[in-house]
Design brief:
By secondary structure, this protein is of the alpha+beta class. It contains one helix and 13 strands; from the N terminus they run αβββββββββββββ.
């Protein structure tokens, strides 16, 4: 009986030890699981566009730069301004000007100096005399192929280039030259042949005078 009692006490002690060991192991697993769960929120990364996020906003695009217009002829004035002229089909002679220092987008709106639907000729002449711009332009059927013009225009732009004086001469070979008349401020458009000298005078106060033909 003593031997059986000793065995029972030994068996009871072993069972108790096993129970205590299992309980300790269970508590350790609970702590690890709790730690893993608690640390999970700390590993996230904010991607919002707010002040606390790490996202980047999109910068607004700059407005496109206006392209520079294309001209048949362009010329500069002493004060830095520029003037461009174009033959435009169905409209005639079109002018634009730009202030000194202005960029490609600083050109004025297109302005029709002389309106016609006649075919253009090849040449377009621009000359600057002080603050004035003189223009010689021609139109005619088949003129671009070398036929003589049917419409010949002399024009002068003054002041802020918003005003243009024009003179039309029909069935004429066209003006070939423009030059100042001394220090008067007047300009003289001319065309010379073996038979005669044709000339047209412009003055700042009177505008264009009558066409003169002087036999040789």
């Amino acid at each position: 009986m003593r031997t059986n009692g000793a065995r029972l006490r030994t068996l009871a002690g072993a069972v108790l030890m096993a129970a205590v060991t299992g309980a300790c192991a269970g508590q350790g697993d609970g702590r690890e699981s709790a730690n893993a769960t608690a640390s999970a929120p700390g590993t996230g990364t904010a991607t919002g566009s707010g002040s606390s996020g790490t996202g980047t906003g999109t910068r607004p695009e700059a407005p496109p730069t206006a392209p520079a217009p294309h001209f048949d002829e362009e010329i500069g004035l002493p004060d830095g301004r520029r003037v461009g002229m174009s033959y435009v089909d169905g409209r005639g002679l079109v002018e634009q000007h730009r202030a000194a220092g202005a960029g490609a987008g600083g050109w004025s709106a297109p302005h029709v100096v002389y309106a016609t639907t006649t075919d253009r000729c090849q040449s377009l002449t621009l000359r600057v005399f002080g603050g004035r711009v003189a223009v010689i332009a021609d139109w005619g059927d088949y003129c671009y192929d070398g036929e003589p013009p049917m419409e010949s225009v002399a024009a002068v732009g003054t002041a802020d280039l918003a005003r243009w004086d024009t003179n039309l001469t029909r069935s004429f070979d066209g003006w070939t030259k423009v030059a100042p008349v001394g220090d008067s401020g007047d300009l003289l458009f001319t065309e010379s042949s073996t038979e005669r000298l044709t000339r047209l005078r412009w003055s700042p106060t009177e505008g264009f005078a009558q066409v003169e033909e002087i036999p040789r």
